[in-house]
Amino acid sequence: MARRAGGPKKKLRRGLWSPEEDDKLMNHIAKYGHGCWSSVPKLAGLDRCGKSCRLRWINYLRPDLKRGAFSQEEEDLIIHLHSMLGNKWSQIAAQLPGRTDNEVKNFWNSYIKKKLRQRGIDPATHKPLAEASSGRAAAASRTAVFSDAELILSSTAGQHMPPPVTAESYVYSRSSTDGGGSGHACSDGSLSLSGYDQTADFAACYLDPDALQCGPSGVPAVVLPSVSSSSTLNSMAGLSPAATTTTATDEQGNTNSGNGFESTQSCSATATNHLPWLELGTSSCGAAGVDHYGAALDELKWSDYVFDGYGGGQYQQGAIPAGQCIYGDSKDAVQFVDGHGLSTSWCLN
DNA sequence: AACTGGACCAACCGCACATAT
DNA sequence: GATATGTGCGGTTGGTCCAGT
């Protein structure tokens, strides 16, 4: 990063953006990409700080944003992901094409939180309120909120495994070879939730026990790229040929986003109606499938690896039996279609 | 019509981390 | 290694809208 020459600080504009400012920013990024955000205001002729421009672009101006009310499916997914990830809004939003972390966060704070409380569920711990209030201190270490280090990559050989899992907060265990009786031994070496004995109450009230078994597809690795990464934004602006986000369909009819994740096509010939990230490394492709992504995965931060222990497999229509959801009126499961209407162009849609 | 309080949401703030110098 | 700068993220704030009084 180049340092910026110092100089007299100009009084920067704050507050709501005017349509003219939006136009300037849009036009600039459309033409040149954002490049270095700190230089964007100057180049675009805006009296804003780069940070403000970045936020405006990410939260409002990005062409791939899906505006409007959240669907029931999105709501269910947010609740589910929050139960696993906690307030990792960016990671949650990454699974909701066209939604931003800010949007998800606001939706959670303004709507879902309230709704859960009305149903007697503590939104922080996803436990019944009475229980959560009586033992919140103890629950804090048992909540389904993971630190980055605790988020586990599911891989056949565990070669990507990061640091050890702490006993208290560990919910999902790697089950293939640990032999500790804490997890289901999935044939593909993926994960299950039976190591959850310390938080059985949570599991019992929250998740479908059947779904905790390793399904036919096992539990996939999850990679959660930030939708606001520089490469994403640059490529959306058409800057980088090497990082183009154009979603192409290959000869098998699978989609392929060109951001370095050749992604899912080799794994999921039946890739429709899946949550895209669940297709990464699913056992349906076995070890070869995992290896297929090895190089790309290695380039990610560990915090980008998370493990999905929910449903023991793909989060798709019918994966969760009706009536099992603690959240009552939710649909059985989520059918996931991204902004392009394609379920596999998940990376940079 | 005027006021009030709650809900919603865009934007800001502060911090952590990555990276260049 | 120290420092400066850029970026990303989660928490918080403040403005606006709207229903109720």
Describe, in plain words, how this protein is organized in 3D.
The chain is mostly helical. The longest helix has 18 residues, at 101-118. It is built from twelve helices and eight strands. The radius of gyration is 21 Å and the shape is elongated. The protein has three domains: 19-61, Arc Repressor Mutant, subunit A (Orthogonal Bundle); 72-212, Homeodomain-like (Arc Repressor Mutant, subunit A, Orthogonal Bundle), CATH 1.10.10.60; 223-304, no CATH class. A hairpin with a 5-residue loop joins strand 6 (247-249) and strand 7 (255-257). The strands form four sheets. It has a two-stranded antiparallel ribbon. It has a two-stranded antiparallel sheet with strand order 3-4. Helices cover 32% and strands 6% of the residues. The model is unreliable at 1-9 and 136-349 (pLDDT under 50). It binds a DNA duplex (21 and 21 nucleotides) through residues 1-4, 14-17, 36-38, 50-52, 54-56, 58-60, 87-90, 101-103, 105-107, 109-111, 114, 226, 228-230.
Percent of residues in beta strands = 5-15%
Query: How far apart are the first and last residues' alpha carbons, in Å?
Result: 27 Å
What is the total tally of β strands? 8
What is the percent of helical residues? 25-40%
* Widest β-sheet, arrangement of strands: 1-2
Give the rounded overall mean pLDDT: 52
Do you know the CATH topology of the largest domain? Arc Repressor Mutant, subunit A
* CATH class category name of the largest domain: Mainly Alpha
Counting structural domains, the number is 3
Q: What is the level-2 CATH architecture name of the largest domain?
A: Orthogonal Bundle
